[in-house]
Amino acid sequence: MSSSTDNSAASVSNKKRPVIAIHGGAGAITRASMSAEKEQHYLAELERIVSSGQAILAAGGSALDAVTEAVRLLEECPLFNAGKGAVFTHQGTHELDACIMDGRTLDAGAISCVNHIRNPILTARKVLEVSPHVMFTGAGAETFAREQGQEMVGAEYFFTQERYDQLQRAIAADSGVLLDHDGASQSGDPLDPERKFGTVGAVAMDALGNLAAATSTGGMTNKQAGRVGDSPIIGAGCYASNHTVAISSTGTGEVFMRTVAAYDVAALIEYAGLSLEEATHKVVQEKLLPLGGIGGMIAVDRFGNVALPFNSEGMYRGFARVGDAPSVSIYRS
Ligand code: ASP
C-alpha cells in the first residue's frame, strides 16, 4: 500500500499558528456499498469536533485542553469506537483504554480495561494531574475514577446494536480479532465497519508552542477480556514531547506496541533528523506494514507541521489551524 501522508496538511505554510488534528480510526473503504448519507454524517461529526478543539486553541486554550475536549466529544459520538459505541470483547463485555500526554512536561495519564467510566479520557487526564502514578487498570482504575468524582455509568451504557452484531459476525466467522472498521459491510459506513480501526485521538499545538496528544478506544472487536492494546501505552498509541512531536495512533495495536510506533516517530525526528513527513512515512509504511500493522497516525510537530499518514484504505481524520476552515476527510486524497 502506498503512502497517504496528507501533504495538503503538511505543506501548510503558516506554521506556529495553533493547530489541532483528530482521527476516528482507519480501515478499509467500501465506497461501492457506502451510503452517501452516512458518509456525510461522519464528515459532519469530524468537522464539528475538530472545530470545537480549534475554538479552544483560538481562545488561547492549551493544547492539553483542546485534545481532552476533542477526544471527549469523540467518545460521546457512537459512530466511533471509544466511549459510547465501543466494540465488544469476545466475552460480550466492553473494556476501554485511554491515554493523554502533555508535551511540555512529559506528564502522562492512562487507564485500561475499564467499563463503568463514561469518559475514559477525562479519567486519564485526572491521572495525569493528580496521581503520582501514570497508569491504572481495571478495578483500581475505576476506584480512582470514583474517588475523583468522574461520571460513572452502568455497563449497558456502552451497548450499541451495531457493535453487538459486529461481534456476532466475528464469532460466527471465527475470524479472530477485528479492527473496528474491518469486515463485510452491512451498514453503509464509509469505512467497512468490520475492517476499520475505530480508536479516536487528537493532537495539538497551542499558541505557546506546547504539544499534547490523547487517544481513547474500545480496542478490537472479539478481543479476549483483559487484552490491552497500544492506545493507552505511552510511546505506542500516544506520545507528546515539545522537543519533537505529538502523535495518536490507530490500528493493529499489537504491532504498534511491538514497534513502539509513536515514540519511534519522535526518535527519528530527534536522533536521525528526519522531517515529520519522513518520520511518519517510515514508521507507517516501512516499519508497521511489513509486520502486518495496519492503520495510521495523526501527528503535529513542534513547528506546527501536520501529518495524517495511514497504510489502510482510509482514515477518518481532520485538522484545523486557527484562522483557517477545518479540513476533514475519509479516503486517500
Ligand atoms: N489500536 C487499537 C487497539 O489495538 C484498535 C484501533 O485502533 O481501532 O486496541
Automatic annotation (TrEMBL):
Entry-linked InterPro entries:
Ntn_hydrolases_N, Peptidase_T2
SUPFAM superfamilies in the cross-refs: N-terminal nucleophile aminohydrolases (Ntn hydrolases) (SSF56235)
Question: Please, which domain of life does this record's source organism belong to?
Answer: Bacteria
Signal peptide (UniProt feature, chain positions) = none
> What Gene3D superfamilies is this protein classified in?
(Glycosyl)asparaginase (3.60.20.30)
Among PANTHER family, the record links this protein to: L-ASPARAGINASE, N(4)-(BETA-N-ACETYLGLUCOSAMINYL)-L-ASPARAGINASE
Q: What is this protein called?
A: Isoaspartyl peptidase/L-asparaginase
- Record the organism: Rahnella inusitata
